[in-house]
Design brief:
Length: 191
């Protein structure tokens, strides 16, 4: 019996360590997304305040990928944005992200608060265990200037010029605009 107790304790410890690692990476992913949201929103608000909403389109085009690249480098993971209705085709969701976005959309239609929608899962990618995390991006007032239903003609022109295949308009307040996505190794690589 003592042997079985020892094995059971060992199994519990082995199970607890990955769960703790997963929780730590989810917490870190939330912080990364929070930093991304705050920095991008600040850049957009500054551009709108000083140069107007047309400049916000250009700022978003330049700054969002730069912020994502910097956060990816700093975190040792992959940080991005994606959506079911794309503005930038480079942000197209992969199959896993598409499933999560569809689930967010479904939950929103059922009345869930879009600010609370997040999802994480440990998956294997090319034999490496990674944590995938997504946080919904609710459409707020600032988003409506470029993603809403009544967009200024000058902003529409800028969107046509920068994003000829744009599908990311017609949103209403509270709609899910897309999601921030983080993919982070669980084995300590990149940390």
């Amino acid at each position: 019996m003592a042997t079985w107790k020892g094995i059971l304790v060992l199994l519990v410890l082995m199970t607890a360590l990955p769960v703790q690692a997963e929780e730590a990476v989810v917490t870190e992913s939330r912080a990364i997304v929070g930093a991304f949201m705050a920095e991008l929103k600040g850049e957009l608000e500054s551009a709108i305040r000083t140069q107007g909403p047309v400049e916000a389109v250009a700022v978003c085009q330049r700054q969002a990928p730069a912020i994502a690249a910097r956060l990816s480098l700093e975190s040792g993971g992959q940080v991005a944005r994606t959506s079911l209705r794309l503005r930038n085709p480079d942000n197209a969701p992969d199959a896993w992200e598409r499933q999560v976005l569809e689930r967010f959309k479904q939950l929103r239609q059922q009345g869930s608060d879009p600010m609370s929608l997040e999802y994480s899962e440990v998956v294997s990618i090319d034999g490496e265990m990674v944590l995938r995390y997504m946080k919904a991006i609710p459409t707020g007032a600032i988003c409506l200037l470029c993603h809403g239903q009544d967009i200024d003609p000058a902003v529409q022109e800028a969107l046509k010029r920068l994003y000829p295949q744009d599908q990311a308009t017609g949103f209403s307040p509270g709609d899910i605009r897309g999601a921030f996505t983080v993919t982070k190794p669980l084995d300590g690589k990149g940390e």
